[in-house]
Amino acid sequence: YNVSDMKIITVIGSGLIGRSWAMLFVSGGYNVKIYDNQPGQSTKFLSLRKQLVELEEAHMLRGELSAAQQLALLSSYDDLSQALDGAFFVQECVFEQLEVKQSIFHDMERFVGKDVILSSSTSCLVPSKVFSKVQNRSRCLVSHPVNPPYYVKLVELVPHPETAAAVMDTTHALMTKVGQAPVLLKKEIDGFALNRVQAAIIAESWRLVQDGVISVKDIDLVMSEGLGMRYAFIGPMETMHLNAPKGLEDYMSRYSENITRILSSFGPVPDFCGEAAKSVINVSVMVTELPCSVLIKCHLSPQRAIQYSI
Ligand code: NAD
């Protein structure tokens, strides 16, 4: 594959994530064909057009093409086979329900050649489940975006156990070409990388509040005024490497005993929904104010921004 020679990408599902992928792919000069099986497709399509024009006016449009040029690359279909015709890459963005995903991939396979890459946006389902009804699984992978993908560049590429290396490489090249920051997982795992790290942070933050060690407001400050400042620019590995005069090995020889002791004091998975969780949840609702920067930066509706911030 050479992603510069390929021209057509199909996006399946025109919800929040499908529309965002469509905007990204047209920003890279690809023809994007969108398919959705629910009524209201044309309204969603119009909102996409409006968004691209607004982004151009705000000088925030991605890619080299004008909004008019990007709009000319977009088309919308009610028929799955027409939507898939000519595509080299398919990005699925339907509801996060295993049966819905399994069945749409099964349907798709009837209409595409064996080399067409089938990619899923799933947040929480592992590839071996999503693609269990696909015959040729060597062309399947998960490309997990972070919401909103137009502004957050990370994409986790997660292989099925049978995925061909060339499929991972092509998808990596495609994501890079449209300006995203792809990372490769070498094998599938529940939660992929981002959600596993996020779950660890959530668990410990929750536990510290629930155990009466710190307030909700202050644990958020630990992230927004401390760790987050650092991690917005460099990752945990690089941070450790820079935090000891002789690098990572030196860092571990100094601090690994502390880290191991702290880690072994972590308890089991906290109670997130039961009686014990009420103390955390009731306080959070009182102190949480939606920062208006989220609204401005993400161009989201207040409804979406609230969901995003949660
Ligand atoms: P959404 O509900 O906004 O959109 C889903 C769209 O899929 C709807 O337009 C619906 O009509 C369409 N659809 C449903 N079944 C279909 C079918 N069989 N054929 C064609 N279209 C169908 O959902 P979303 O937030 O855009 O999420 C889509 C996927 O992206 C999910 O797998 C989700 O886990 C993943 N994802 C979401 C986020 C997020 O924060 N929203 C982040 C990363 C990944």
UniProtKB/TrEMBL annotation:
One family name in Pfam for this protein: 3HCDH_N
Record InterPro entries: 3-OHacyl-CoA_DH_CS, 3-OHacyl-CoA_DH_NAD-bd, 3HC_DH_C, 6-PGluconate_DH-like_C_sf, 6PGD_dom2, NAD(P)-bd_dom_sf
UniProt key word Oxidoreductase: yes
Residue ranges of domain 3-hydroxyacyl-CoA dehydrogenase C-terminal in the record: 191-258
Domain 3-hydroxyacyl-CoA dehydrogenase NAD binding: 9-187
GO molecular function: L-gulonate 3-dehydrogenase activity; NAD+ binding
One BP term from GO: fatty acid metabolic process
Record's signal peptide: none
UniProt keyword terms in alphabetical order: Oxidoreductase
Family, as annotated: Belongs to the 3-hydroxyacyl-CoA dehydrogenase family.
UniProt protein name: Crystallin, lambda 1
